[in-house]
Write a structure and sequence with these properties.
It is a single chain. The chain is α/β, with parallel strands linked by helices and 547 residues long. It folds into two domains: 313 residues, ABC transporter transmembrane region fold (Up-down Bundle); 217 residues, Rossmann fold (3-Layer(aba) Sandwich), CATH 3.40.50. Helices cover 62% and strands 11% of the residues. The chain has a five-stranded parallel sheet with strand order 6-7-8-3-9, with helices on both faces. A four-stranded antiparallel sheet has the order 2-1-4-5. Helix 8 runs antiparallel to helix 9. It is elongated.
Length: 547
């Protein structure tokens, strides 16, 4: 676990976008404190006027009290509205920033966290941190101010009593804090188990047909039962510690109130306390105790938030991909790999070793080989997603500055358009999927690339381009999804077209038509690299590289 000081520094950074809104919440809270103490003063005055302890117009003071009450209602309503708006804005911004950081982090071929765990952090942890920043922090600041102001007022009326009340509440908070570290540890364990449960949901819903045919639902739900049982046990332990901590707080709260009540009763009996003073003191004790109690109750929420801050800091600690000035080549650039070696950071086993090849400008190259030979890894190096352990990968061609060569990196990635293996459609309509590449694509442009990808069937569907793909393209066959994915890639303007087993789900006739269309429209205009284990691709290629 990270230190609390480190988590607090992270919280300060996370608060940056919402600081002025947090300040507004604090200022509104100060106005509420002023209205609350004014209400105490006017209550004492009214009771003293009613009992003839002081002169004054009861109707005038009653009118002032009604005005203060109306102001309290207005401030309370505005504070609630402002708090919700602040939370929505801050939560959306934090999610956007962390999501963007993940997408822009360096990719080494293996994701640092399971996607379900990342979603859990983006949803639940950001919700918890947002509540801390937008609700708990201004509330605690206002609470401290209210405690100080109410204590000063109470000291003026009854110094001995109020110090006794404060001492009782401090002892109660100190008792509850004994469980601070254990509560943090349990919260961390619960969040980790929550992420594991979300992984079970996501993985098995995504592969439901596999679950039905291979594992059976009972095995999956049994695994979920074990995780949820752990969550229940951990939550039970955390609740026990919370109950004990709250018991300390309740003892301090009731003891302080009882002391104030009996002070008033015996004072009135002795003639040293007026009814108005007792009324004011009972309210002030509440305004002293409530802030102390609120601070005590904020401790578990603070622990909960510290865990979430720590989990979010693990995302922001991911190294961002280094990106320089965009380098865009005209036409069909060439690609050259020289003495490439590659192994993953956590392994010393080389997937590629001293590999060299060249993809000439405007050519169509087929890369053939057995599964696991390193073909897809080679493609990721060509795209700049993976950096070779040794050797160099260079792209060359004409730019706005003339003939130029550049090391393949994130700066050159816009020159590549990519069709990965399998179905890669996102949830949404067909047109939405296509426009992810070119947001302003016209229907004619979409019709053209769909035709080249032999996906003209789209216009025979009842809703045409507005047909919903569903999650993983559900509602369409795998071959149909694959052809739409190819059409989507063809909308991109990059001069190097990369296809990784892009025809694996197609029958031989459809594959042949597709390859003919690609050659007819793009041979010479794009540098095409096609990974496949099917010999039909090799027959269209200018060059064949076999692993």
């Amino acid at each position: 676990m990270k230190s609390i000081a480190s988590c607090l520094r992270t919280a300060v950074v996370l608060s940056r976008p919402a600081r002025w809104r947090i300040l507004v919440s604090f200022l509104v809270g100060l106005f509420q404190i002023a209205a609350s103490l004014s209400f105490v003063w006017i209550s004492k005055a009214l009771v003293d006027i009613a009992t003839k302890e002081r002169p004054g117009s009861i109707w005038l003071f009653a009118g002032v009290m009604a005005g203060i009450m109306a102001l309290q209602i207005i401030l309370r309503l505005f504070a609630a509205w402002w708090e919700k708006m602040n939370m929505v804005k801050t939560q959306n911004l934090l999610r956007r920033n962390h999501f963007s950081h993940i997408l822009n982090s360096t990719w080494n071929g293996r994701e640092a966290y399971h996607s379900a765990d990342v979603v859990n952090r983006l949803e639940e942890d950001i919700r918890v941190v947002t509540e801390l920043l937008c609700v708990k922090v201004p509330d605690v600041a206002v609470t401290v101010c209210q405690l100080v102001a109410a204590s000063v007022y109470a000291v003026i009326l009854a110094p001995g009593l109020i110090w006794m009340v404060i001492a009782m509440m401090i002892v109660a908070i100190a008792g509850s804090r004994m469980f601070f570290r254990r509560l943090r540890s349990l919260t961390n364990d619960i969040r980790r188990k929550d992420s594991q449960a979300q992984q079970v949901f996501q993985d098995n819903l995504r592969l439901r047909s596999l679950v039905l045919m291979l594992f059976g639902p009972s095995k999956v739900t049994g695994r979920l039962d074990n995780i949820q049982s752990d969550i229940e046990n951990l939550t039970r332990k955390r609740l026990v510690y919370n109950v004990i901590a709250r018991g300390f707080m309740a003892f301090g709260f009731m003891g302080g109130y009882a002391a104030a009540f009996f002070w008033g009763v015996f004072g009135i009996n002795a003639g040293t306390v007026t009814y108005g003073m007792m009324t004011a003191m009972l309210q002030l004790v509440g305004q002293v105790q409530r802030p102390i109690s609120d601070i005590g109750r904020a401790i578990p929420a603070f622990i909960h938030a510290i865990t979430s801050i720590e989990r979010l800091s693990e995302i922001t600690d991911l190294e961002l991909e280094k990106r320089g000035e965009l380098i865009m080549f005209k036409g069909a650039p060439s690609v050259r790999l020289s003495n490439i070696g590659f192994h993953y950071p956590d392994s010393q086993e080389y997937i590629l070793s001293d590999f060299s090849c060249e993809f000439p400008s405007g050519s169509l190259t087929a890369i053939m080989g057995a599964t696991g030979a390193g073909k897809s890894t080679l493609l990721k190096i060509v795209m700049g997603l993976l950096r070779p352990t040794s050797g160099s990968a260079v792209i060359s061609g004409n730019t706005s500055r003339g003939e130029e060569s550049a090391e393949i990196s994130a700066s050159t990635r816009e020159n590549f358009t990519y069709v990965p293996q399998g179905n890669t459609l996102l949830s949404g309509t067909i047109s939405e999927n296509l426009r992810l590449v070119q947001s302003d694509a016209s229907e004619d442009e979409m019709r053209k690339v769909l035709s080249i990808a032999d996906a003209g069937f789209v216009f025979d569907l009842p809703k045409g381009l507005d047909t919903a793909c569903g999650e993983d393209g559900s509602g369409l066959s795998e071959g149909q999804c694959q052809r739409i994915a190819i059409a989507r890639a063809l909308l991109k303007k990059g001069g190097v077209l990369l296809l990784d087993e892009a025809t694996s789900a197609l029958d031989s006739q459809t594959e042949h038509r597709l390859l003919e269309n690609i050659c007819k429209n793009y041979r010479g205009e794009k540098t095409i690299i096609f990974i496949s284990h099917r010999e039909a691709v090799a027959s269209f290629a200018d060059n064949v590289i076999r692993f």
